[in-house]
Write a structure and sequence with these properties.
There is one protein chain. The chain is built from 10 helices and 4 strands. With 302 residues, it is of the alpha+beta class. The chain has 2 domains: 179 residues, no CATH class; 85 residues, Alpha-Beta Plaits. Strands 2-3-1-4 form a 4-stranded antiparallel β-sheet.
């Protein structure tokens, strides 16, 4: 019976002409309710926005540093190579092909012993000495984290006498990247908890101040979304404005990082600043709206 009633309502609703002007008025009223709620909060608005802006600034700065750190790690990883020294009787082409077919191997470059010895003699000024150097294969890996894996895979290949790479540097780079990623996770988590808690408490105060007004609206049959939406918009407003304020110190950090990249001759990550700004705006607005929504569910039974 209930299903048939709902079906009839849907059918009737489809045939009712939409009054777009009326809908625009409703939207206007909802927006104005949100504005009035913000005005009611008074000086507390500044405290909320300042606190949220501080939290989002810390997140934005760390996020921007992490992007630059990832670029540094990637560029240094491209410099890291595994040097594979071959035995004198090794089949060079066979060894080279086997290494090239391995997973995570990006490039393989053969340096004949004659070329290495010629360069060394020229640098040290040596003459009339037999060549003691072996043929060498330089292996570049796709990521620094995969160097140890490729290194261990090359070891048992027949014809390989010895091999090596900057093991300590690779380890330090991996540890640094892991620390940055872990820090980012905890900062996002803490930012979310603090922001949602602040907004939650603020919206709770607004609900308490409008308690009688909300009760009257309920008795008049006002829809739940009309009561909820202004409060959610208020939380989103706090988050959005706080994000915009947090962008200001971020521009100073951008200038500092540009100088660091230029000094080390490492390219700046493309669109890094834009990515951070968009992320800040989205996260700030989403956290603000989420805090309002949770407060409504907890303190406003609609």
């Amino acid at each position: 019976m209930d299903n048939s009633k709902q079906q009839i309502k849907k059918t009737v609703k489809k045939h009712i002409p939409k009054d777009w002007l009326c809908e625009l008025r409703i939207v206007y009223r909802v927006v104005m309710e949100a504005v009035h709620d913000i005005k009611r909060t008074g000086i507390v608005n500044l405290i909320i926005i300042a606190t949220m802006a501080s939290i989002l600034t810390i997140f934005g700065v760390l996020f921007r540093f992490t992007l630059s750190l990832s670029t540094f790690t990637h560029e240094l990883g491209n410099v890291l190579e595994i040097s594979v020294y071959l035995k004198r009787d090794a089949q060079v082409s066979v060894v080279k092909d086997r290494i090239k077919s391995m997973e995570h191997v990006q490039t393989v470059k053969l340096i004949p012993k004659e070329e290495s010895w010629g360069n060394l003699k020229q640098e040290l000024g040596l003459h009339d000495i037999s060549n003691p150097l072996p043929d060498t294969i330089r292996v570049k890996v796709d990521k620094p984290s995969n160097i140890a894996l490729v290194f261990n895979s090359i070891k048992p290949i027949a014809g390989v006498e010895d091999l090596g790479y900057a093991k300590e540097l690779a380890k330090k780079m991996q540890v640094l990247t892991n620390v940055a990623n872990t820090s980012m996770f905890f900062v996002i988590l803490i930012s979310a908890i603090l922001t949602i808690t602040i907004i939650n408490n603020t919206i709770q105060l607004v609900i308490q101040s409008r308690k009688e007004e909300i009760e009257i609206m309920r008795l008049m049959g006002v829809s739940n979304w009309y009561i909820k939406t202004p409060l959610i918009m208020q939380g989103a407003f706090y988050g959005f404005i706080s994000s915009i304020i947090a962008i200001i110190p971020l521009n100073c950090i951008q200038g500092l990082l540009q100088n660091v990249h230029k000094f080390f001759l490492i390219p700046i990550p493309p669109y890094a600043q834009n990515v951070v700004i968009i992320t800040l705006l989205l996260i700030g607005t989403a956290f603000g709206a989420s805090g309002s929504f949770l407060s409504i569910k907890k303190h406003l039974q609609v």
